[in-house]
Amino acid sequence: MPGRRSVYEGTYEGRPVIIKVFSSRLHGQRHFKREVKGLELLAQRNIPAPRLVMTGRNRDGWILVVEKIEPAEDVLTVYNRMSEPTETCSILKPVFKQLAAMHTAGVLQKDLHLGNFLWDGETLYAMDPAQMRFESEPINSSQSYCQLGNLATMFWGYDRSLKTELFDVYFKARGWTLNNSAFDQIEKFAATARAHGLEHTLKKSLRTCTDFVRHTSATKSGVYDRSVFEGQDLTAFMEKIDDIMENGKILKRGNSSLVSRIELNGHDTVVKRYNHKGHLHSLRHTIKGSRAKKCWLLGHRLCRLDIPTAKPLAFIEQRKNGFLYQSCLITEYVEGQTLYQLLKDAEASDPSAKTALEQSNQLIQKLVDNGLTHADLKLSNILFTKTGPVLIDLDSMHRHRMHFILDFYAKKMITKFHRRLEDI
Question: Is it the case that residue 98 has pLDDT exceeding 60?
Answer without folding.
Answer: yes
